[in-house]
Amino acid sequence: MQVKFFTELKKFSPDKMVKINLFETNNLFCDVYCLEPQQSQKLHTHHDADKIYFVLEGIGHFYVGEEKQTLGVGNTVLAPAGLQHGVENLSEERLVLLVVMSPNPNVKNKA
Amino acid sequence: MQVKFFTELKKFSPDKMVKINLFETNNLFCDVYCLEPQQSQKLHTHHDADKIYFVLEGIGHFYVGEEKQTLGVGNTVLAPAGLQHGVENLSEERLVLLVVMSPNPNVKNKA
Lengths: 111, 111
Fold this sequence. Notes:
Chain A has one helix spanning 6-9; strands spanning 2-5, 18-24, 29-35, 40-44, 50-57, 60-64, 67-71, 75-79, 85-88, 95-102. Chain A is mainly beta. The longest helix of chain A has 4 residues, at 6-9. Chain A is globular, with a radius of gyration of 14 Å. At the A-B interface, β1, β5, β7, β8 and β10 of A face β1, β5, β7, β8 and β10 of B.
């Protein structure tokens, strides 16, 4: 059985946000993102894929489309295909996110 | 911005597990499952869709394929397409799960 425990896997880098892959299938990927204070995932857009962020630890500043919200542990955010989105850690604590994206943009030739 | 806070949304029924939809797109759905002690999601199989469970509260007994594991908060489980899977709350506390499924089986005609 494929099981991952994020508290054992999370890690941080002074250089930039760290992405840790938990699972990858033809349909989706599931990552953990680890952000030190002041680190961010810059605004970007996926034209075909939807992304879900779930806040595991800390407080994130989320951007989706033209909107912005500051969200803590237990919040889930949808970044639908076609809308620019990103996240920034403007707090003084580390930020850890569970991230699911579907379809998996790393799979070029879906069955 | 579509944001959901599961602690405000979770609810339980004495009759059976409660599913609360957070988001639904052409590519995925994201639900919260709420199980009282002794409630379960029976073993079943999705032939095309992958499911991810994340334990938000409590302890779950997870079944994927022929395997079984007891998992607490912070664990993520992959139930890949084609493998039977289910979850049971054999503990004395409530169990709350974040569940993502992709592709969305409720969408019959994908673009």
